[in-house]
Design a protein that fits this description.
The chain is mainly alpha-helical. Helix 1 packs antiparallel against helix 2. It is flat, with a radius of gyration of 20 Å. The termini are far apart. The relative contact order is 0.07. The model has no long low-confidence stretch (mean pLDDT 83).
């Protein structure tokens, strides 16, 4: 059953990645990117990497996707993607080289599979480390305030008068 779920998520990921490339509307391409990020998080869940899956959802699906969509909505004139110019051959060559490197890496890597799931959770110890008694609670809160002030500053700079 996990193999079937993985194949389904892989198919959705490939289709949504192709959607990011093919769709001409930037907003719809961003929605395809969100679907891609969610399927990657689903693959992490299948690999029993619960912390990485949560971080994937929070950072990529939550923050990065919202940032992209807000940027698209703030630039109202850029609804359609740019037509391919003189760099399409260079981009095609770079994409082919990247594909060759990925295929070579997959073929030559000796993958080992674990027969059992992890013995202990990863989220609870990390939560205790970050927010526990001698943890980094103040550091995390300072980072949150800095991020919030950066977002508010960006909105103030780009806001229409």
């Amino acid at each position: 059953m996990p193999e079937l779920v993985f194949l389904l998520m892989a198919a959705v990921a490939v289709v949504s990645a192709l959607g990011v490339l093919v769709v001409r509307d930037i907003f719809r391409a961003a929605l395809c990117l969100i679907v891609l990020f969610m399927t990657v998080a689903g693959v992490y869940v299948l690999l029993h990497a619960d912390f990485i899956a949560v971080v994937q959802v929070l950072v990529y699906v939550g923050a990065i996707s919202v940032l992209i969509i807000v940027a698209i909505m703030l630039t109202r004139d850029a609804r359609q993607g740019q037509p391919l110019g003189n760099l399409k051959y260079v981009a095609g060559a770079v994409a082919f080289l990247l594909l060759a490197v990925i295929v070579y890496s997959v073929i030559t890597t000796a993958f080992t599979l674990s027969e059992s799931a992890p013995l202990e959770e990863t989220v609870k110890p990390l939560g205790k480390l970050l927010f526990g008694d001698p943890g980094y609670l103040l550091t995390v809160q300072i980072a949150a305030v800095l991020l919030l002030s950066a977002i508010l500053g960006a909105i103030a700079v780009i806001r229409e008068k």
